[in-house]
């Protein structure tokens, strides 16, 4: 296989195709600390894209309760087990080799799904990526184990009265919202024998050509996140399209100026956990330095948002701010060794990071740039850090501004929400 560079792994890896990168990349950040599992995003996607015959079990967007939930069921634990069996005890990170741009999380010493596939013997070989086909039963329950907690004392004699204090809860669960990650090195694309899957050069969105697809389901087998799905009545596979007409600004009703707007799942989020953007990609595949871009700022500048299962090797472009209350080993397995740093940043954000966190789901246009206007100090609060120590956070009433692709200001928010008193002469329920 050709060798490509994966900045999330901090090294070169094997991939079936030569390295090639789009001009800009569709990317997003989800703040799991805010997700309430309401499934509004799920139904927004369902009612827009997958409400037709043959798509009954299609959930391009889903929200699953970890650690037990999953769609399809056990999608991640099954693949993690397969990788461990292919490389027993070797799926580890060397965090001493961290470098800001080329290897921000250190170096992954284990096998990716592409490298593990190279070790397969007949009859499994040859395969582009290590994977499996879920059974029909595993696809039937998109919200299985919803809101089901776990913990070392869950259900035991000491379960009553257990403290729920940070930094970690002994009884816990969290909601994991998922869409296609539109990976830099998609396993679905690598696995397709028909070359029916392609990555758009203008925005990095991964699509399936329905005219070329023959429904072999190799993409379903190869995708580690199981976001390619087979449609039985058309005998083709389909997947999240990244709502590309909205990214292109083609809808005159919601984008009269032709600027990119957020996808349906992003725009419908009532918990304001989602921030979507487009980042510029350099020729070597790394992100061009652009700290004014909110996605770049959260992922590369501050390291507060992390990729989902980076050890799979696909270099996903979906990033998550980890939940504060979950045991650290579980989070490190899911998001890599940057968890401690991310939680340290998020638990006690400085004034600039706090301002950027207000931009989640604050507008419909995709933000390409932000700016912060500093305001007066309005308070101090004591914060318990992940280490267990306490720290005093200073709160400033700063104003954060967001700008769309044309440079127009589309959002302006203050840290302290303004209070309005309705005039008594006009409103009976006025204060």
Helix tally equals 12
Q: Could you tell me the number of beta strands?
A: 21
Largest sheet, strands/sense/barrel: 4 strands, mixed
- Proportion of β residues? 15-25%
Short description:
This protein is α+β, with helices and mostly antiparallel strands.
Fold and architecture overview:
- By secondary structure, the chain is α+β, with helices and mostly antiparallel strands.
- The protein has twelve helices and 21 strands.
- The protein has a four-stranded mixed β-sheet. Strands 17-20-21 form a three-stranded antiparallel β-sheet. The protein has a two-stranded antiparallel ribbon with strand order 1-2.
- The mean pLDDT is 93.
- It has a single domain, classed as 2-Layer Sandwich (Alpha-Beta Plaits).
- Strand 20 and strand 21 form a beta hairpin.
- Helix content is 19%, strand content 21%.
- It is globular and about 75 Å long.
- The termini are far apart.
